[in-house]
Write a structure and sequence with these properties.
Elements lengths: L1 E3 L2 H13 L4 E6 L5 H13 L2 E6 L19 H10 L4 E3 L3 H4 L19 H4 L3 H16 L3 E5 L3 H13 L5 E5 L19 H6 L2 H14 L5 H15 L2 E9 L12 E10 L2 E10 L2
Parallel strand pairs: 1-4, 2-3, 2-5, 3-4, 5-6
Antiparallel strand pairs: 7-8, 8-9
Bound molecules: pantoate.
Length: about 280
């Protein structure tokens, strides 16, 4: 497995793969890899001849009061996992490589979608994501890139950026990987105390209850969202939102919309958890 830290060798390696007629998948991550990340890598392996994983804790997607400084950094363990999962290369760039201009660097922004849902509670977050992901795409030049559906809004924002900017690559979404009790895997789960960890699966259960009510046609969208918020509060969460949206573009569902996504973000102790489920109405 090649470990790359800068642009030139990364591009040279990808060029060599291309000359050999091989396709390339990129799996962007912030490290602290768990089974959810490994599932992204597995999907990448199935679809492409070569897989590059990037590890970069991107400062521009963290707000001033967020966990950038304390975000878990576990490079040695991550590299072991990536070797075991047969990644071909890992790109571990420094901040100066990703953002050579210290201040006033170019920002890529997807209007509307980026300030809705999580974007309303984390101002600038998705601008940070799109700004770093486009840089990674431009450095690596992959045929495809894989992102987890756990961050469904992120996936939707990135798909929109690629469509709007005519980026010549395919964006693949990989299903959320869950612990046995339903909690979606996330690096931020380690912020939960043992007591909070026992409560955390209620987030997924609440989303499943929303799905049941939508399928049973019980109550309108707003009533279902309100009931879910109340149930999260009773369980001890401080919810940011529960939202039933169109799965295609996260707009409010219209009467004929059949493919829905129910999304939620809620704080539990130090952790801010997000999750979502799909609903296909008959
Ligand atoms: O999902 C993540 O880990 C990050 O938001 C990403 C896509 C690697 C960009 O920093």
């Amino acid at each position: 497995m090649d470990i790359l830290r800068s642009l030139r060798p990364t591009r040279a390696l990808v060029q060599a793969w291309r000359h050999a007629g091989q396709t390339v998948a990129l799996v962007p991550t912030m490290g602290n890899l768990h089974d959810g990340h490994v599932s992204l890598l597995r999907l990448a392996r199935q679809r492409a001849d070569r897989v590059m994983v990037s590890i970069f804790v991107n400062p521009t997607q963290f707000g001033p009061s967020e966990d950038f400084a304390s975000y878990p950094r576990t490079l040695a363990a991550d590299l072991r996992r990536l070797r075991a999962a047969r990644a071909d290369a890992v790109l571990v760039p420094g901040v100066a490589t990703m953002y050579p201009r210290a201040g006033g660097a170019t920002v890529v922004s997807v209007p509307g979608l980026s300030t809705d849902l999580c974007g309303a509670f984390r101002p600038g977050h998705f601008d940070g994501v799109t700004s770093v992901v486009l840089r990674l795409f431009n450095i690596v030049g992959p045929d495809m890139a894989v992102f987890g559906e756990k961050d469904y809004q992120q996936l939707t924002v990135i798909r929109r950026m690629c469509a709007d900017l005519h980026l010549p690559l395919q964006v693949l979404g990989a299903p959320t990987v869950r612990d046995a009790d339903g909690l979606a895997m996330s690096s931020r789960n380690q912020y939960l105390t043992p007591a909070e960890r026992t409560v955390a699966p209620r987030l997924y259960e609440t989303l499943l209850a929303c799905r049941q009510r939508l399928l049973a046609n019980e109550g309108d969208r707003r009533a279902i969202e309100r009931a879910a918020l109340a149930s999260l509060r009773r369980a001890g969460f401080r919810p940011d939102y529960v939202a039933i949206r169109s799965a295609a573009d996260l707009t409010l569902p219209q009467p004929g919309t059949r493919r829905l996504r129910v999304l939620a973000a809620a704080r539990l102790g130090r952790a801010r958890l997000i999750d979502n489920v799909s609903v296909r109405l008959p």
